[in-house]
Structure formats: structure tokens, C-alpha cells
Design a protein that fits this description.
By secondary structure, the chain is of the alpha+beta class. It contains 5 helices and 17 strands. The chain has a 6-stranded antiparallel sheet, with no helix packed on it. Strands 12-11-10-7-14-15 form a 6-stranded antiparallel sheet, with no helix packed on it.
């Protein structure tokens, strides 16, 4: 018997689904569960993944929210069978290491992306290094981001970045509304790459950095690199797994 824990977003649809499923399949606390079932949208899924980092417990999401790219279709019947047949996908997060303008140090993990954004009306000025080599001495922009393959269909896509298949072992480095160099559209980097952003004129042009939902303001330097020591396991129905969704998204009208 699979021991299940149900977590839900704070919406009526998600809360009703949790009550219905718990009554039908029983439930235990997340610390005793074999699988966590997350009910909501992609935001709830990201929160759940962050909450149980390091627990090595698979998470099966069902869509009861707005955006459901990381979730499966919601159905009450046949959940145990679906979980037995589910395919595993292992994600590795990005680690953001920040030095603030006052010399402080902060670190956070991102499952989707690390993004840098201007804090005020003036555009940001960024210097970009990859593996210690300067690649852009100055970019004037609203910001920039580094995305994982799983996150490439989220903020990265809305910033006109490339969609990356899960098995490609790549990261996307994407500018956000770049003014100069205005022809630069970003870069695809090996997953082992270490991306460093140095904030130029940071007193005049302050910049914040965000790893998924963890924001640090007034940053001076941001380093981003995939953390292969951490693995997150998602479960998907075989007929609609995450890799297939990423591929389909590239042909969406």
C-alpha cells in the first residue's frame, strides 16, 4: 500500500480535491509518506519542491490551479494505478550565490530560473562572465536570467529565450529587454557552466536577484551554477510526461 500525503494550494478547487482524495485513499503526514501528491498550479508545485528539498521523496502533481505545466491531469479514480505506472524525472536546481552591495552573502536554490532585474527606473548595467571568462563587458537591459531545461518554458520563454529539451544538458542565458547590445539574443551553455553577473554602477542602477521566489535586493555580484548534489524527483503519467510536454511546447502555435 502506497502511503500518500496530500498538499494543496489555498484555492477552493485545490482544497476540495485534497478532501476528496484523502477520504478515498487515506493520508499520512509528509514525513511518513512514500509519495507526496501536490494539488494546485505550477506555483504550488515549486513551493512543494522547495519545501521538501533533501527529503528524497517523489512528488506527483495534479492540476487544480492556473498554470499546470509541471502537473498531471486531475482525476480522482485510479490514482494508485497511476502512481505505480508513473515515470520519474530528476531535476537538478540552480544555486544562486549573491554578494550584496554591503558585502553580505546569500545563497538560494532555483528549480526554474535565477533572474536579475533592475530595481528602479534606470536600466541595469551588467557584466557577464562564463567560467571566469568575460563574455559581455557591458549589457544595458532590464535584466537577465539563467534557466534550467524544466524552467525554460516559464519566464525564460516569455523573455524570448529558447525551449530546452530535458535531456540536452544545457542552460539558457537570456537577456530581458536588452538595449545594448540590442542584437544579442542570449546563449546556450553546458550545464556545468558557472555564470557570473557583476553589477556596474550599482549605486545609480540597483539590481535585485531572484531564485524562483527568493529575492535578494541591492546585489553587487551573482554567481549561478547547477547543483548536481541535489536531485528532485517528479512523477508523470507515461502518456504525458515532462519531456514530451517540453517537446510539444516547441511546436505550439
Amino acid at each position: 500500500m502506497i502511503r500518500l500525503a496530500f498538499v494543496a494550494a489555498e484555492t477552493p478547487a485545490a482544497r476540495d480535491a485534497r478532501r476528496t482524495l484523502a477520504k478515498r485513499y487515506g493520508q499520512v503526514g509528509p514525513d511518513k509518506a512514500d509519495i507526496i501528491v501536490a494539488l494546485g498550479g505550477d506555483g504550488l508545485m515549486l513551493q512543494t519542491l522547495h519545501r521538501y528539498l533533501g527529503r528524497d521523496i517523489p512528488i506527483f502533481g495534479m492540476h487544480r490551479g492556473s498554470v499546470g505545466f509541471l502537473l498531471n491531469e486531475y482525476r480522482v479514480a485510479g490514482l494508485t494505478r497511476r502512481l505505480e505506472r508513473a515515470q520519474k524525472v530528476t531535476l537538478h536546481p540552480l544555486r544562486m550565490t549573491v554578494t550584496t552591495s554591503r558585502g553580505g552573502k546569500r545563497s538560494a536554490l532555483a528549480i526554474n530560473e535565477v533572474s536579475l532585474l533592475r530595481q528602479q527606473r534606470q536600466a541595469a548595467k551588467l557584466r557577464i562572465l562564463v567560467d571566469g571568462i568575460e563574455r559581455l563587458p557591458e549589457m544595458i537591459c532590464d535584466g537577465a536570467l539563467v534557466s534550467t531545461p524544466a524552467g525554460s518554458t516559464a519566464y525564460n520563454l516569455s523573455a524570448h529565450g529558447p525551449i530546452i529539451p530535458l535531456g540536452a544538458d544545457l542552460l539558457a542565458l537570456t537577456p530581458i529587454s536588452a538595449f545594448r547590445p540590442h542584437r544579442w539574443r542570449g546563449a546556450l551553455l553546458p550545464r556545468t557552466a558557472k555564470v557570473t553577473f557583476e553589477i556596474l554602477e550599482r549605486d545609480k542602477r540597483p539590481v535585485s536577484a531572484t531564485a524562483d521566489h527568493n529575492e535578494v535586493r541591492d546585489v553587487a555580484r551573482v554567481e549561478v551554477q547547477e547543483d548536481r548534489t541535489i536531485g528532485l524527483t517528479l512523477l508523470f503519467d507515461p502518456e504525458n510526461n515532462l519531456e514530451e510536454r517540453v517537446l510539444k511546447e516547441q511546436f505550439a502555435p
